[in-house]
Amino acid sequence: MFAAVGLQFAVVLVLGLAAALFSGWPGAKALMLGGLAAALPSALFALRLSMHRGRPAESYPIVFFIGEFVKIGLTIALLAAIVRWQPEVRWLPLIIGLVAALKAPLLLPLAQRWARRVGS
């Protein structure tokens, strides 16, 4: 769980630094805000699931689905807050950051394989 969340933050950070080099600070800021709008709720969701370890297995699906709905709602709320408090937001970098953070966990098997090769 936490490896996927860490990978989300890493991808957002790397893309934000690349955006700062190529398009300047406003684009990097929008990209990182979009990525954080997805990564922060995921981190809270992973924390909530880890707190539920050791409890009865029957309650796990309820905790998972309620947590997933809260995560989606928090992501939408964060995006609405970004749009409200950053009226001059650049939409393309914002959406790229959001999508990159949401798709970053798909890279987890590659990152784990790379970590094993580097570690040996």
Please describe the structure with a list of short key phrases separated by commas or semicolons:
mainly alpha; 5 helices; about 0% strand; flat; about 120 residues; about 85% helix
* Broad shape: flat
Strand element count: 0
Helix content: over 70%
Structural class call reads mainly alpha
Rg, please? 16 Å
Written account of the structure:
- The structure is a single chain.
- The chain has 120 residues and is mostly helical.
- It has one domain.
- The protein has 5 helices and no strands.
- Helix 1 (2-23) packs antiparallel against helix 2 (25-51), helix 2 packs antiparallel against helix 3 and helix 2 packs parallel to helix 4.
- 25% of the residues are buried.
- The mean pLDDT is 90.
Q: What is this structure, in a nutshell?
A:
With 120 residues, this protein is an all-alpha fold. The protein contains 5 helices and no strands.
Summarize the helices and strands and which ones pair or pack.
Elements: H1 2-23, H2 25-51, H3 60-85, H4 91-103, H5 108-119
Helix pairs in contact: 1-2, 1-4, 2-3, 2-4
